[in-house]
Amino acid sequence: MSTWVAVPEGSGFGIDNLPYGIFAPPDAPARVGIRIGDQVLDLAAVLDDTVFAAATLNPFMAQGPRRWADVRAQVTDLLTDECHRERLEPALWPLPSVTLALPFAVADYVDYYSSLQHASNVGRMFRPDEEPLKPNWRHLPVGYHGRSGTVVVSGTPVMRPHGQTKAPDATAPSFGPTRRLDIEAEVGFVVGVASRMGDPIAVDAVAEHVFGVVLCNDWSARDIQAWEYVPLGPCLGKSFATSISAWVVPLAALQAARVPPPVQDPTPLPYLQGAEPWGLNLALEVQLNGTVVSRPPFAEMYWTPAQQLAHMTVNGASVRAGDLYASGTVSGAERDQRGSLLELTWNGAEPLTLSDGSTRTFLEDGDTVSIIATAPTANGGRIRLGDVTGTIAPATPPTL
Amino acid sequence: MSTWVAVPEGSGFGIDNLPYGIFAPPDAPARVGIRIGDQVLDLAAVLDDTVFAAATLNPFMAQGPRRWADVRAQVTDLLTDECHRERLEPALWPLPSVTLALPFAVADYVDYYSSLQHASNVGRMFRPDEEPLKPNWRHLPVGYHGRSGTVVVSGTPVMRPHGQTKAPDATAPSFGPTRRLDIEAEVGFVVGVASRMGDPIAVDAVAEHVFGVVLCNDWSARDIQAWEYVPLGPCLGKSFATSISAWVVPLAALQAARVPPPVQDPTPLPYLQGAEPWGLNLALEVQLNGTVVSRPPFAEMYWTPAQQLAHMTVNGASVRAGDLYASGTVSGAERDQRGSLLELTWNGAEPLTLSDGSTRTFLEDGDTVSIIATAPTANGGRIRLGDVTGTIAPATPPTL
C-alpha cells in the first residue's frame, strides 16, 4: 500500500503510521491533524465530524476503538487513492508552516517504574545497604501519580528548577537550582475510552481503552527527589515538567510490534495475567546534543501497558479520556541501554563523553535532549513514534 | 448584618458564610449556586454573567480575587436588603429539592502530610524501628499527587476496593477486598487563579490564587497502602475515591479564623517564610454512624496552606483553576483528636465503641462517615464548612 503523498525515504511517517496531533495553520485555530511524511492533513477540512475541529484529541479519543478504526480506514483510503489528491492537497500543510500543540488535555498522569534494570539500578544507588528491588516490585507494577498540569509538548523549553536539597554530610537543607538535572526516557499510553468507578479494566481489554502511544521525557531533579521522596514518593523533583511527543501513534499502527514480555517470576496474581501479549518491541534512542547516548529496548520492560492499566483500575478507580500513563524509565541490561543519566553516569561517577569532546554527568543549561523510537511493521519496515525534545533553560531565581 | 432569608438557628450558613456550589434544580441543568440557610440561590438567575451558568465553578474561580469580592458584596447586598426579596425568591431553591454536584472540575490533586501528630503516629506504626519523622519532615511540607479523576462529591457511596495485600508473615501477596478501610479527615484548598510555569507563588500570595476551602475525606485502604507504598508512595491504597464537600467556602469568609501556626523549629527556608499568618482555627468533627469519634483541631497543623502552595510551585510548577490541595490528615495531640481510624484505634489494637454499643477498628460495609467543621467569625459566631459524608458500599468482585 502506498500513498500519493511524497514521503521522504526512511521517514517512518508513511501510510502505515498516521499518528494524530493538534496543529494550528498560520493565523488559524488549532485542530486535529494526521501526520503523513513531513506534512499534516487537516482532518476537520476533509472529514465531516466536529470532533476534528477541537483543540485537543480528547473528544475523538472518547469515541472509541470502532470509530478509531473507521477513521484510520477512511484516511488510509484518502491518502492512497489518487482520485482524492486534488481535493486533499489544499488540506495538507507542510510541517514547518504549522504550530504543534499538546495533543490532548491530560487528565490524570500516572508514572510507572516497570523496568527491572532501572528499578534495580536506582535501588543500588539510592539505597546501597538494601536489596535493590523492594519486595513488592515483582508482584505489582509500582507507580505513582505525577502532575498533569505540567505535561508539555515536545519542543517546550524546560527551565532548570529550584528546590531544597541536602548533601549527606550537611546538617540542614539548602535552596537553589538543581545540580542533578536528569532525563527519563519513557513510553506513554494515552487513554481514550473512560471507565466507570467500581469497574476494573481487565488486562486483555487494554485496546478497548487505550488510543495510542507517545514518547515521554520525565525530567527529574535527582538532588531534590532524593531529599523529598520519603515516605510519600517523588513530588517537586519531577513536577516541574514532563515532555511528550506532539504525535500520538495509534495502537493500531503498533500491532506488528507486539511481543511477549519477559518471563514474570513469580507468576503474577490472576488479575495481572492476560491471554494476549502486550510487550512492545520499540527501539528507543536518547540523543544528548546530537550524540546518541543510549538505545533503550522497550521489549525488555517487565510489566506491560495492559498490566499497568489493569492494576491502575483494579481498586475501582476510573480512567478518563486524556489519562496518560507512562512506562517508567526504559533501561536495558547493557550500560548503553540505560534511559537516564543517573544510570548512564552511575550517579555522576562515570561521565559521558559527547561527540564534541565535552563530558556530562547531569544536564547543563542549553543542553538539548531528544528521544526517538521506531517500531517494526508487518511488511518489514519501521514506523517512528513522535520525537520528544527539550532544551534546558537556565534557572531564574524565584521572586519571593 | 442580617438576611431576609430564613436561616435556622445555628445553621452556620448565614450571611457571613455564602459558600459556592454546583446544583441542579429539578429537570434543569447544573449551574452555580450560593447556599444561604437551607436554600440555594441560583446565581445565573440573578447576576448577569454566563460563568454562573457553567456546570463547574472553574470559570468563575478563574476570574480572580477582585471579582470574587465583587460578587460576594453583590450577593450580600441582595440577601440583606429586603427590596430584593420579591425578585430573588423565585431563584431560591430548598436544598432537598436540588441535586448537588462536584463543585469544580479537579485539575491536579496534591495531598500533603502536614500534621506533626499524624505523621508521627503513622511513622510509629508503619516503621516502628525508625525515628517516626523522616529527616525532611520539618524542612518542607511533604506531599504527593493523588488521583483527581476519582474525587467525588459528598454523599457519593464509596465502594470497598479490592487490591493486593501481604501479611508480614505471608510469603506472597493475596488479592481481595481491603480489610483496613480507613478515613482521613482533611481540609482542602481550591485554586482559582492559575500561575505560569516557571513563576513560583510567594507564600504571602496565597489569597491571590486560592478561592476557597472544602472538607476532604481521603479514604485509604491501609493494607493495600502498606504493601505498595515503597519506594514511590501511596497509589492504589488511595486512588479509589476521595470525597469533598459540595460547598466551597470562600477564603473571604475565613478571615476571622486566621491564626499563627505552631512555632516551626527549625526555621524554614526563606521561601517558606511569610509575613501573614495562614494557620486556620477550624474545629473539625468526625462522626462514624452518628457517633462523634474525633474532634481534630486544624489550628495545630504544622505547615499552612500558604506554605504548601509556595512549596508546590517553587520548582516552577504551575497551578490551574480547579487544582485541589489537601492538608493531610488533621490530628491533634490528644487521642480523641486523631483524624484517622488507623490512629484512633492504633492500627486496630484499640477498638472504638460507638453509641449503639458496636465496636470498630476499621470501616465495615454500610458505615457512614461524616466530617464537619466550623470556623469563628468576626462577630463571635461560627460558620460551617460544607460537610463531607460517605457510606461504604460492599466490594463487588472484579469481572476479569
Summarize the helices and strands and which ones pair or pack:
The structure is a homodimer of 400-residue chains.
Chain A: E1 20-24, E2 31-36, E3 39-42, H1 43-46, H2 58-61, H3 65-80, H4 85-88, E4 92-94, E5 99-101, E6 109-112, H5 116-126, E7 143-146, E8 151-153, E9 158-159, E10 162-165, E11 174-177, E12 181-182, E13 185-191, H6 206-209, E14 210-217, E15 220-221, H7 222-228, H8 236-239, E16 242-244, E17 249-250, E18 258-259, E19 279-280, E20 283-288, E21 291-294, H9 305-313, E22 324-326, H10 341-344, E23 352-353, E24 359-360, E25 368-376, E26 382-384, E27 388-393
Parallel strand pairs in A: 6-22, 8-16, 9-27
Antiparallel strand pairs in A: 1-2, 1-5, 2-3, 3-4, 6-7, 10-11, 12-15, 13-14, 13-22, 14-16, 14-17, 18-19, 20-21, 20-25, 23-24, 25-26, 25-27
